[in-house]
Amino acid sequence: MNYKATIEIMLRETILDVQGKAVEQAIRTFGDNGINKVRVGKKITFSLSAETQINAENAVKTICEKLLANPVMEDFNYQVEQLNQN
Amino acid sequence: MNSKINFGVVVFPGSNCDFDAYRVADEILQQNVKYIWHKDSTLGAVDVIILPGGFSYGDYLRTGAIARFSPVMQEVVKFAKNGGLVIGLCNGFQILTECGLLPGVLMRNKSLKFICDFVNLKVVTKNTPFTSECLEDEVLKIPIAHGDGNYFADEETLKSLKENDQIVFQYCNKNGEVTDDSNPNGAIQNIAGIINKERNVLGMMPHPERAVRSILGSTDGLKVFNSIVESFIFQS
At the topology level of CATH, where does A2-82 sit? Predict the structure, then answer.
C-alpha cells in the first residue's frame, strides 16, 4: 500500500519562538488586528509504502523521533493517509 | 613525550573552519593532523577529533541534524564512548548535541541575527583536558560567528550539568561577570560551552581556532589547544 505522510513540527510551547515573535511584530505594523501567539514551524511531506496503515504510522513516528524533530525543543504531529491505487 | 599527537579534523560538505583547525594543529601545535572525510567509515589512528565550524549539509532541517547520520559520525561516537577526546567548535557543538554526545540543543539566536564578534568567555572549570592550561574564572577573548548558538536545556539537565561541573564556558563581561548584557545569543545561563560527564567531549560555540595569533586579535584560543596537548603529556 502507498501512503502519504504529512508532518508538522513546532517549537515546544514552553520555548520562546523568536521567529514567531518577529513575524508577530511585522503583523502589528498593519495595525491592531487582534493577532497574537504567532508561532512558526515546519511542514514535511513524503510518500511511503507499507503493509498496513499502522505500519506506515509507526515508520513515520520513528523517522520523526530519530531525525525530523529534536525532542529537546520540538513537538511533532503527523497524518498518514492511504493513496488511491492505480 | 616521544611521539606526536594525532589530530583528525572531520570535513563535512559545508564545513568552513576545517582548514583553520588543521593549521592550528599543524603549524602552531606542530602535531600530526589529517582531514577525515564525512563518508569515511574509519577514523584511522587518531588521538583527538575536531568537529569544525561551518554549515554541514547546509544546516538543512536543523543545524547538525543531517551530519549526525554521516558514516564518520558513527565512528566518532564510538571513539568518544571509548574515551577519545572530541572537541566540537560551533557547528561541531551543534552536531554533538544532535548525536547525543552532549545534552541540550542550540537554537536560533534570540536576536535572529547571525553574530560575528569577539566575546568574553569565563572559564568556569579548568578540570577538563580542554581548559587545564587556563586559570579558574579566567576571561578569554575569543570570537563567535553563528546564527544558532542559543543553548537550551531543560531544568533537570541544567541541574545535572551544574552538579557534575560540566559547564565549561559562560559568556561574560570584561570583568568576568556573567550578565544579561554579555549574552550575545540568549543562551540559557550564558552557556557557551559544555563537556560530557566523562569529560572527554567538549562542545563550544566560540571559535578558539580563530584566536591563535596576535594578528587575529587574540591568542586566547591557544589555551584550549595547549590544554589538549598538555593532557597527553601528563598521560605519558
Answer: Mth169; Chain: A , (3.30.1280)
